[in-house]
């Protein structure tokens, strides 16, 4: 009985503490008057490179921001943007669960726009040599996404499932999705074992509800009912639900910054 009691307390603490930290970081009403999803700000966060000023450089970035409303205390919404060398505008792709049958949306919002009031964070940032080829792979991954007409907020497939699929198909992204990216671990019963979202690790999962991930980028993470618990040894931190990680910052570094000349028109 004694061990069971302490185990129960430990599980409760592991669930409540991350939620409490998430609530403390983003307390209700901190941004002023409550907003509806219709009036929540969607303007640019000012973190994407100026595509015109970097016309000669191919760029890929992956973002994630808290989801709207109460779900933002538990999960994030990710998306990918890119521009080829010579382009002066970004293309954005994410999965949206409303407004049409095909949930994969192109240029649904600004490249680095706030997600209904939430400022995005950069998960991956690649620029310069080799990135044009990476973009080809990303576009092929988008075209091969297995659930273009299906969306479930929990346990998936959803926006996190979509970006995790791109990460598996394009290992050069070195994508490390946070523990609170609910849906990143979604796998069908017919394919329960395979690459992790980084493309460099291994994952076993039943519908994103029970499983584990092990890899250089992700460290070791266990998934229980869609909630991720683990440890990252690459950049030392705990991987926790609600807040994603607790420890060393995992802000993506710019990779391959050497600019490429713009192609002749």
Automatic annotation (TrEMBL):
<dbReference type="InterPro" id="IPR022224">
    <property type="entry name" value="DUF3750"/>
</dbReference>
<feature type="region of interest" description="Disordered">
    <location>
        <begin position="26"/>
        <end position="48"/>
    </location>
</feature>
<feature type="signal peptide">
    <location>
        <begin position="1"/>
        <end position="24"/>
    </location>
</feature>
<dbReference type="Pfam" id="PF12570">
    <property type="entry name" value="DUF3750"/>
</dbReference>
<keyword id="KW-0732">Signal</keyword>
<protein>
    <submittedName>
        <fullName>Conserved hypothetical secreted protein</fullName>
    </submittedName>
</protein>
């Amino acid at each position: 009985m004694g061990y069971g009691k302490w185990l129960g307390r430990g599980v409760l603490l592991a669930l409540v503490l991350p939620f409490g930290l998430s609530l403390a970081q983003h307390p209700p009403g901190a941004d002023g008057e409550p907003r509806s999803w219709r009036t929540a700000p969607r303007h640019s966060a000012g973190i994407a490179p100026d595509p015109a000023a970097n016309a000669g450089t191919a760029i890929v970035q992956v973002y994630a921001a808290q989801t709207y409303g109460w779900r933002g205390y538990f999960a994030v919404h990710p998306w990918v943007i890119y521009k080829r060398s010579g382009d002066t505008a970004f293309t954005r792709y994410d999965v949206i669960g409303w407004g049409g049958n095909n949930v994969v949306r192109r240029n649904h919002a600004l490249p680095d726009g706030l997600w209904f009031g939430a400022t995005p964070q950069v998960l991956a940032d690649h620029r310069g040599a080799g990135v044009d080829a990476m973009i080809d792979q990303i576009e092929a991954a988008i075209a091969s996404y297995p659930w273009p007409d299906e969306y479930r907020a929990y346990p998936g497939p959803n926006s996190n499932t979509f970006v995790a699929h791109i990460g598996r198909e394009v290992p050069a992204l070195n994508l490390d999705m946070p523990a609170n990216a609910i849906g990143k671990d979604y796998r069908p019963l017919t394919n329960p074992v395979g690459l992790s979202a980084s493309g460099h690790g291994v994952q076993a999962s039943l519908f994103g509800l029970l499983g584990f991930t092990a890899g250089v980028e992700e460290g070791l993470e266990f998934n229980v009912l869609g909630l991720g618990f683990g440890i990252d040894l690459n950049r030392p931190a705990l991987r926790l639900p609600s807040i994603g990680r607790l420890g060393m910052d995992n802000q993506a570094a710019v990779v391959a910054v050497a600019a490429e000349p713009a192609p002749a028109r």
